[in-house]
Specification:
The chain is about 35% helix and about 25% strand. The strands form five sheets. It has a five-stranded mixed beta sheet with strand order 3-2-1-9-10, sandwiched between helices. A five-stranded mixed beta sheet has the order 13-12-11-17-18, sandwiched between helices. The protein folds into two domains: about 140 residues, Nucleotidyltransferase, domain 5; about 160 residues, Nucleotidyltransferase, domain 5 (2-Layer Sandwich), CATH 3.30.420. The N terminus is likely disordered. With about 350 residues, the protein is of the alpha+beta class. Bound molecules: adenosine-5'-triphosphate (ATP) and magnesium ion. The site of magnesium ion has 5 residues, from loops. InterPro entries: ATPase_NBD, MreB, MreB_MamK-like.
Length: about 350
């Protein structure tokens, strides 16, 4: 960080020069791992999941295939998620997983670079231990130097927000583990919040609802189909009034199906999301009035996989009265933003000192 940058603030200019010298950009998410290679593009976008044989320690599958195995393995195969809550919790497993996701050809290509430099997204206000874990993961993969960029900045660049201008923009990054939101101006974060609610909390809300209201255990893989069974309506109220769900009876353990009231499921999904609205309120209260006025025009940009939850944008629109738009390809905005910085497509923030006129 250049001297003069206020602590706690991350500027786009932090190390644009350094970033331009990086070869790969990595976003280690709780749900998905994404890798961008300079000059090539997005090469990996796979679930952050690995399946291991616990008898031999051998890796059996990674990515989408390993995710499919969740809940379907014999006891000697364990499906693990080395990244949890936006932090690498098992560095060695994360490295093995990423090596396999990259594949032999790319791995050889990167090994040929004698001084491999990597850039990685780090969640806003992540603690030093979490940052250290990301750095160590990439160092173990051969990186000599790792640049960390705040996810909020990377995502804002990735969705084309005019971050470097003296006008306020608000971004909401809703992933699997967390929702991060910020008001940005002049390439810096003015105010920000990180809320531990994302796609996982939504899935849990649905699971809990069925368990308490219908005494039904849902197989882990059918939560997503269940949300889709709300006929892609998510939080919208149109669509069927009820839908049939198959699961296992909590008491007897036998397979059973129930008719579930979709309005009740919608309510259950709505509950965790109210903390996102509270977060937006807090960020706006902490924000200087001039910037809030800009926001009334420019509105909120949503990114992250959970931004795709139907009706989430409308919920924010209703709660704030501001325009809300979902970015193009919201799930990969952060890594594409890092990629743009690697390729040198991001204009540096140049504040040339004005020549002072002598009287
Ligand atoms: N069409 C969709 N509708 C609803 N939710 C979706 C949709 N597509 C993806 N999601 C949710 O988005 C989440 C994944 O988003 P994303 O890829 O941004 O997470 P991540 O970057 O891995 O997580 P984090 O940033 O929290 O570490 C998952 O929880 C998934 O359920
Ligand atoms: Mg993410």
């Amino acid at each position: 960080m250049p001297s003069g940058t206020a602590p706690g603030r991350t500027a786009v200019t932090v190390s644009l020069d350094q970033l331009r010298r990086c070869h790969i950009a990595v976003d280690l998410g709780a749900a998905r791992t994404r890798v961008y290679v300079k000059g090539v593009g997005l090469v990996v976008d796979e679930p952050s999941v690995a399946a291991v044989n616990i008898r031999s320690g051998a890796l059996i599958a990674v990515g989408a295939l390993a995710e499919k195995m969740t809940g379907r393995t014999p006891e000697y195969i364990r499906v693990v998620r080395p990244i949890s809550g936006g932090t690498v919790v098992d560095i060695e497993m994360a490295q093995r997983m990423i090596r396999h996701l990259l594949g032999e050809k790319l791995r050889r290509q990167l090994r040929r670079k004698p001084r491999l430099r990597a850039a990685a997204c780090t969640p806003h206000l992540s603690d030093p231990l979490a940052q250290r874990a990301s750095v160590e993961t990439l160092v173990g993969l051969g990186a000599r130097r790792v640049e960390l960029v705040d996810t909020l900045i990377a995502a804002a660049v990735g969705c084309g927000l005019p971050v470097e201008q003296p006008t306020a923009t608000m971004i909401v990054v809703s992933g699997a583990a967390t929702t991060q939101l910020a008001v940005l101006s002049l390439g810096s974060i003015v105010t920000a919040e990180r809320i531990p609610v994302g796609g996982n909390a939504i899935d849990n809300a649905v699971i809990q609802h069925l368990r308490t209201q219908h005494e039904l255990l849902l197989p882990s893989q059918s939560v997503r189909p269940l949300q889709l069974a709300l006929h892609g309506n998510g939080l919208h109220s149109h669509g069927p009034e009820s839908t049939e769900i198959h699961g296992r009876d909590v008491a007897t353990g036998l397979a059973r199906s129930v008719q579930v009231d979709t309005a009740a499921v919608r309510n259950a999904i709505h509950t965790p999301l109210t903390s996102v609205i509270d977060g937006i309120g807090k960020v706006l209260r902490d924000c200087p009035p001039d910037l809030v006025a800009d926001l009334a025009d420019r509105g909120i940009t949503m990114v992250g996989g959970s931004a795709l939850l139907p009706g989430f944008d409308q919920m924010l629109r209703d709660a704030t009265g501001m325009p809300v738009r979902i970015a193009d390809r919201p799930d990969v905005c952060a890594v594409l933003g890092l990629g743009a910085m690697l390729e040198g497509n991001v204009k540096p923030l140049a504040f040339d000192p004005l020549t002072e006129v002598e009287e």
